[in-house]
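[step 3/7] fold_predict: job queued, chain A
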Amino acid sequence: MAKRWIEAPAEAQSDAEILQRQLFVRKQFKAEQVEAHVFQANLQEGEELLWRLDRTDGGVGTLFASLERLQEDASLSSGQWFTEVRLSSDGQQGNWIVPEDGTYRLVIQPELFANATYTLAMSSGGSLDMPVSGASPQDIGSPFGAPRDGGARRHHGVDIFAPKGTPVVAVTAGRVRTGTSNLGGKHVWLAGGWFSVASPRYYYAHLDEFAVDSGVTLQAGDVLGYVGNTGNAINTPPHLHFGIYTTGGPVDPEPFIQPRPTLPEK
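[step 4/7] structure written:
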């Protein structure tokens, strides 16, 4: 029985339910069965995952739940899964920021010989608000990694197109440093707190004007400048070049600034 219990998540993997932004299920375990339920998602670095797991039967016995990541280059059926987070089943909302691209799964399993009924709500989305006021993902052009200067360099951010003068806001609390260069034109560096690195930096380039002085501390949502086309963007439509830099180098900002996740109620 113990061996069957240990192997149950691997057996359930082929029937895993896939998370497509939102998921809500109501499921039951019966004492005479040895099984697990698996919910799978392909997630990108910078996304936020929300969940609410609520045991609704008031029964005895523990309901185990864990969020796991598939080892890189491993197959779903035979690959090794690493536990990232353990979840409680008390009905409280939990959240987690994805540290790296990969395949993830949520495994739910009761202890042996326990009846259990539960509801699970899950949602994935961006972990930061859009840095351009009123913009949406459809306004993003020139994706991360696109070639520049005939392939001599790569685009280390995304371009968010908006009318000249549109407010640009801080995506997190932090201190700013303003500057001007031939490449980025009028630009702002914002140093704030992202969970997995000591000092992330957010880069705002091609601004038309600054709204802050260098050295000030902002709160998330404060206006720091206005969309323009300064620097090497002088011959392009107005847009904000937005970049995120960690201790490991630049990362793709697009997953960070997708619409924020919300949990379905039913």
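[step 5/7] annotate
The longest strand covers residues 116-126.
The CA atoms of residues 157 and 243 lie 4 Å apart.
exit 0
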